[in-house]
């Protein structure tokens, strides 16, 4: 049996897929989550896939006392993967304090508890949102960090600073910050996926919900961008590929293979696809005709971004294996299973 790993936010979308990969690699996983954006039934999904139900603690990590209590109960954890955060960009603009309070306090409480309990390794969920609209594409880890477009984006920038400054003052701690591009798709079993709480903000869950009849039509936010088909370009990465990168990152820290105590890696495919390409791919893999309408641009959207993945490919030795087709098909299969659609 390999070591114990704490996964904060492990009941969530990316967290649950990472828990599956950790269990498949022989780790004992301890999930801590307050279910603010997830459902306890995800544990059943994880058990169906792996045969193991991970330990689960319902704890609000933005609460210092609850966090300290949780860490004091968990013995012999060797690392933390910190997913727990709020992630809705628009909501963060409406209610910035909700985002600063949850995302920043949770991180501080987790770091303090790690220091108190002598846990040295933390992998942090960062985002391509830290780059804003880069001037040069593809975007590398050395690209400029632009002023954040939203309080959510700012929490990711501030979190990276908090981690790197804490590490500077405490040489025992080590961290890898993973900057995700656009995670999509679901586990091949369709037992877990992206939990559709409320109206989705993101493109792929909106597409699958529209095709499933939950939404009337997909609104395509603008086709007058400076891109080949006029719709914005993103780097869509299969969530299972993303999950696997966390194993590589955590083992790099545990095995002391890191070259600095704070490292940053982009996690994307290195390839950009437009909104229309995503829609066309969905129609192709599902055989469904999607009801969509082009409307005006969404405020705050950037035109195009995709990752330079040289560093994660060469230094982490990680490469995504799944195609856009596979990712979109897996999202559709999961949607149908969740909705009992044949
Ligand atoms: P998610 O909402 O599905 O998962 C986050 C989990 O954290 C949820 O289960 C939620 O209940 C939990 N949580 C939130 N606040 C908590 C708290 N105070 N205490 C305990 N648990 C708490 O989101 P996700 O898509 O899986 O994202 C995971 C991480 O990756 C987040 O940090 C997010 O910002 C980051 N990220 C996500 C994306 C994306 O597009 N999904 C892209 C880049 C970065
Ligand atoms: C993708 C494209 C939309 C919905 C967000 C966060 C970012 C990161 C990833 C966390 C855009 C278009 C979308 C719809 C549409 N998350 N679209 N109709 O905006 O790249 O990034 O998720 O860190 O921080 O901002 O992802 O999936 O919302 O949009 O036309 O109903 O799809 O305009 O071009 P985005 P998205």
Give a quick rundown of the structure.
This protein has 342 residues and is α/β, with parallel strands linked by helices. It has two domains: 4-184 and 236-267, Rossmann fold; 203-234 and 270-339, UDP-galactose 4-epimerase, domain 1.
Characterise the protein shown here.
α1 packs parallel to α2 (42-50), α1 packs across α8 and α5 packs parallel to α6. β1 (4-8), α1 (13-24) and β2 form a beta-alpha-beta unit. It is globular and about 55 Å long. The chain has a seven-stranded parallel sheet, with helices on both faces. It has 342 residues and is an alpha/beta fold. It has two domains: 4-184 and 236-267, NAD(P)-binding Rossmann-like Domain (Rossmann fold); 203-234 and 270-339, Alpha-Beta Complex (UDP-galactose 4-epimerase, domain 1). It has helices at residues 13-24, 42-50, 64-73, 89-94, 96-116, 151-169, 203-211, 239-254, 275-286, 310-316, 324-339, and strands at 4-8, 28-33, 55-58, 77-82, 121-127, 174-180, 182-184, 218-221, 233-234, 236-238, 262-267, 273-274, 292-295. The chain starts with a strand and ends with a helix.
Topology:
Blueprint (H helix, E strand, L loop, with lengths): L3 E5 L4 H12 L3 E6 L8 H9 L4 E4 L5 H10 L3 E6 L6 H6 L1 H21 L4 E7 L23 H19 L4 E7 L1 E3 L18 H9 L6 E4 L11 E2 L1 E3 H16 L7 E6 L5 E2 H12 L5 E4 L14 H7 L7 H16 L3
Parallel strand pairs: 1-2, 1-4, 2-3, 4-5, 5-6, 6-11, 7-10, 8-13
Antiparallel strand pairs: 9-12
Helix pairs in contact: 1-2, 1-8, 3-5, 5-6, 7-9, 7-11, 9-11
The structure holds nicotinamide-adenine-dinucleotide (NAD) and UDP-4-deoxy-4-formamido-beta-L-arabinopyranose.
UDP-4-deoxy-4-formamido-beta-L-arabinopyranose binds next to helix 7 and strand 8.
